Task: inverse folding
């Protein structure tokens, strides 16, 4: 390696990002989005994945302070075998400027959303929307960070006029159990959950399934512990290198559900007309 090399590929990208050419930045962005996978790619393979040339990848490696691509790859592989994701995240935070981290984070978000767009089943999404607008009541549950996502979705679905209840927001486990007793085949439960899964969320989904309620899950896997109780799973991959618990994909699914319900639910326009005057009188212009 050249003098004063970076201790990680992330650090090198952060330090030299502004100096890279547009095609070299394409390689850097691909690397950030597929950090672990890149440790398995040879020079020609990485060039092909990035839609560029071997020469560009070599120049990219040298622009980051390495003697060549093999030198660059050796550092990346050592890093991947010796550091956890948390170590990598903390190292990036320590070494990168806020502007660097913003650029890297937004690049990862854009990649996640594109992956979501490519992988989400439109037919499954349409089925969920149709079930929501025809349901008697809609229940939502999520624990940990998923509780905030379920609360956001519940809040906005209420604004469309749907009879929507977030389980656990204010009543605890006993309140959740009481509300589960009220579920019928005319109702819908949306469970939002990601590893490590909450036992409570799984048990509520199972309870709802026993009442013949429609159960839909927003999660990152089609085969997790909620799969057996779910009628459909809207798969929202949540892995990012900078923040492994990112909710960007799940939030995008929630936003899409809100938009679809607002435009298809027959009472949504009337609900908006009734809601606006109540809210507007309390707003400061």
Result:
């Amino acid at each position: 390696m050249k003098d004063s090399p970076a201790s990680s590929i992330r650090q090198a990208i952060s330090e030299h990002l502004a100096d890279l050419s547009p095609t070299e930045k394409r390689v850097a962005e691909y690397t950030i989005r597929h950090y672990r996978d890149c440790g398995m790619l040879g020079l020609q393979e990485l060039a092909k994945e990035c839609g560029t040339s071997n020469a560009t990848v070599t120049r990219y490696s040298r622009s980051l302070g390495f003697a060549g691509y093999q030198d660059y790859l050796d550092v990346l592989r050592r890093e991947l075998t010796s550091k956890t994701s948390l170590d990598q995240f903390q190292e990036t935070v320590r070494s990168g400027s806020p502007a660097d981290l913003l650029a890297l984070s937004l690049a990862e978000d854009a990649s996640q959303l594109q992956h979501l767009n490519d992988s989400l089943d439109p037919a499954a999404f349409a089925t969920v929307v149709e079930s929501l607008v025809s349901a008697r009541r809609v229940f939502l549950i999520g624990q940990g960070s998923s509780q905030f996502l379920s609360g956001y979705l519940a809040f906005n679905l209420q604004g469309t006029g749907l009879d929507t209840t977030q389980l656990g927001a204010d009543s605890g486990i006993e309140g959740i159990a009481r509300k589960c007793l009220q579920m019928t085949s005319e109702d819908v439960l949306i469970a939002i959950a990601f590893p490590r899964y909450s036992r409570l969320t799984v048990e509520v989904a199972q309870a709802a399934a026993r009442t013949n309620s429609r159960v839909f899950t927003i999660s990152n896997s089609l085969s997790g512990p909620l799969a057996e109780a779910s009628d459909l799973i809207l798969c929202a991959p949540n892995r990012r290198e900078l923040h492994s618990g990112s909710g960007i994909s799940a939030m995008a699914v929630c936003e899409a559900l809100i938009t679809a319900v607002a435009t298809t639910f027959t009472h949504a326009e009337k609900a908006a007309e009734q809601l606006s005057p109540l809210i507007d009188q309390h707003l400061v212009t």
